[in-house]
Each structure stands twice: as structure tokens, then as C-alpha cells.
UniProtKB/TrEMBL annotation:
It holds the Pfam family Maf. It comes from Flagellimonas yonaguniensis. CDD domains: Maf. The lineage of its organism: Bacteria, Pseudomonadati, Bacteroidota, Flavobacteriia, Flavobacteriales. Its main location: cytoplasm. It catalyses: UTP + H2O = UMP + diphosphate + H(+); dTTP + H2O = dTMP + diphosphate + H(+). Keywords: Cytoplasm, Hydrolase, Nucleotide metabolism. This is dTTP/UTP pyrophosphatase. It is found in: Cytoplasm. Its cofactor is a divalent metal cation.
Amino acid sequence: MTKNPLKEKLKDKKIILGSGSPRRKMFLEELGLDFEVRPKSVEEVYPKELQGQEISEYLAKLKAIPFNEELEPGQIAITSDTVVWHNNRSLAKADDKDEAFEMLRTLSGDWHEVITSVCFTTKDSQKTVSGITKVKLKDFSDEEINYYIDTCQPFDKAGAYGIQEWIGMIGITEIQGSYTNVVGLPTDLVYKTLMEL
């Protein structure tokens, strides 16, 4: 039987996913990797002057800090962060229904960027890569936005939406770049980086 090239490459390594995201876990499983899920909680605060990709890279590295003391040789910790960037503003996770509604109303009928940065940390090195996908949403009615928020409760997602959910099915009119990046992990970049590590 033909072997998975990535799994072969990493057979002497131990992958640790520093995220509780079910979507990121699913993508690593679909890449055929053996890994341990070990989320660490960090306060996701970044310097106000950072823009777009700088924010996601900063936060992906910040999430790696708790692993610095505990990584052993042969272990690779993967941490990541996703930012929705629109009109020079970062749309983070919504705290409540009103905030989610405002975000979706703002994104409605317009282009935005979804930026996911992934940080690979070993005992003696660190590398961060970022995927950027441009997404165009249709003009949503208030009813569509409210229905989506009520049924999907998208409060754990940057920009208050998940492309893989109902709103993505009815609302994505154009996409430039990686689809998996918008879901939460640029799998092509993760594969490439792990093959090169």
C-alpha cells in the first residue's frame, strides 16, 4: 500500500495541535496526521497599531508561548489564528447577537480578506506562514442574517460567520484563494511547511 508522504516524513516527530477548534482538528486528521490536541488558553490581545496579517501572525505566535518550556526534541506545536479584515478593521469573534448582526451587515455585499496564520514551534526553531483569501458576500437581508445567527450561533468565529455553514452556502458569490483557509487552516501551506521542516 502506498504510504502518505507527509506521515512518512513526520514518522519520528510528534505533532501537538495547540487549538481546541474542531475544524482545525478535522483538517489535520484529513491530512492523515497523528497528533495530540493540547489547547492552551492565552489572552488574545495585540498592539493596536498592527494591521491585517500582522495581527494573525502576532496572535499565532502568542498562542505558541505556553509551549516554549514544555516542548521536547522531535515535537512540533502548531498554533494558529484567523482574522477577518475589512475596510482596514479586524473583525474578531462577536460577543453577542447584536455584535454578530453588525459584523454581518458590514460584510454584506462587499469583499473582505480572511487571513489565517499558522505558527510551527519546535524546541529550537519557529516558523510562521499565512494564507490570505479574498471573499465576496452577497447583500444579505436582515431576515437572512437573523436566521443564520439564531440557527448557527457563530460566536466562536472571526467575522461572525463560517463559510462551511448555511450563510456560506447562500452567500459566497466569489472566492479568491484557499477555501480551507477561510474555514480555519490553510492546509496547502501546512502540508508544504511540515514537508520542509
